[in-house]
DNA sequence: CAGTATCCAGCTAGATACTG
DNA sequence: CAGTATCTAGCTGGATACTG
């Protein structure tokens, strides 16, 4: 009956099977793959669902075209963007849809799985933006202490 | 009066100042730094507060010694562990305490700032462990489709 | 115990040129 | 438009040896 108990039991079960602390565990490799700046930003872009960027609300998937993503993620190279998108597609986090127009139109959209990761990842981006000042202050302090 | 409104307003303000989508924004560099496997695992270790690994409960900081961390994060090299710890210390996410015993005893402990990032990061590790099966299935499917 | 120092293989990722 | 292909500088990170 309890979906809460079910969820907790399921999580516990999977945590017994997979442990990212172990070098050989597949989840360690997965953690490595998703611990990536471009992954975080692609997910943030495709999941941001327009202006309501409230971090406490899971956004709708926002389909975006390749060139839109390239523009949004300033500084990304074609290579890294394509590579990141291919990885995420292979892992089932997003779909790649090709419309046979001329020239061709390619759209990327988060799957439910991708949306679930987005729910986690966007907090990372938000955290970085929210605590940048604090971190910067610590760096100044730390560097000053070392210099003495 | 509402702390909720205050928090939201504060977040919105900071999001106007910092935008990790911009290559030049300091928060982009911060995002890059924290989007790291070893950062995720060090935080997970120092914040896991013993056996109650329930991802919905923020753990107490768990002080750990260098060698404990090295054992916990299987596969980490001395270089990467030390480097990661130094970065996190400089950014104010953890403290490094040296007890002048013989031989010396060094303890690492999350600060409040580090604990707040841990609150976000541990979901990443949990997600990787919880969705590994699904991702693996997608890969098989995807690779099969490509092979045809 | 908790590092530091050094070397180097290999991967990452940017730049550039080209294409259906 | 949305890539692919190629080359390469340089950074990452592992291995190894040494130290207060």
Would you write up a description of this structure?
The structure is a homodimer. Chain A is mostly helical and about 150 residues long. In chain A, about 60% of the residues lie in helices and about 10% in strands. Chain A is built from 6 helices and 3 strands, in the order H-H-H-E-H-H-E-E-H. The first copy, chain A, has helices at about 5-15, 25-35, 35-45, 65-70, 80-90, 110-145, and strands at about 65, 95-100, 105-110. A 3-stranded antiparallel beta sheet of chain A has the order 1-3-2. In chain A, a hairpin with a 5-residue loop joins strand 2 (about 95-100) and strand 3. In chain A, helix 3 crosses helix 6. The longest helix of chain A has about 35 residues, at about 110-145. The radius of gyration of chain A is 19 Å and the shape is globular. Chains A and B meet through helix 1, helix 2, helix 3 and helix 6 of A and helix 1, helix 2, helix 3 and helix 6 of B. Chain A binds a DNA duplex (20 and 20 nucleotides) through helix 4 and helix 5.
């Amino acid at each position: 009956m309890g979906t809460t108990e079910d969820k907790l039991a399921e999580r516990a079960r999977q945590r017994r099977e997979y442990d990212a602390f172990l070098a050989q565990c597949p989840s360690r490799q997965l953690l490595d793959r998703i611990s990536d700046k471009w992954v975080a930003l692609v997910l943030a872009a495709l999941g941001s669902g327009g202006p309501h960027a409230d971090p406490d609300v899971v956004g709708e998937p926002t389909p975006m075209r390749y060139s839109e993503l390239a523009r949004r993620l300033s500084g990304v190279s074609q290579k890294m963007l394509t590579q990141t998108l291919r990885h995420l597609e292979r892992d089932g986090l997003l779909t790649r849809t090709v419309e046979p127009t001329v020239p061709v139109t390619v759209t990327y959209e988060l799957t439910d799985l991708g949306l679930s990761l987005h729910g986690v990842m966007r907090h990372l981006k938000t955290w970085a933006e929210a605590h940048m000042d604090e971190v910067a202050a610590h760096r100044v302090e730390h560097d000053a202490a070392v210099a003495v």
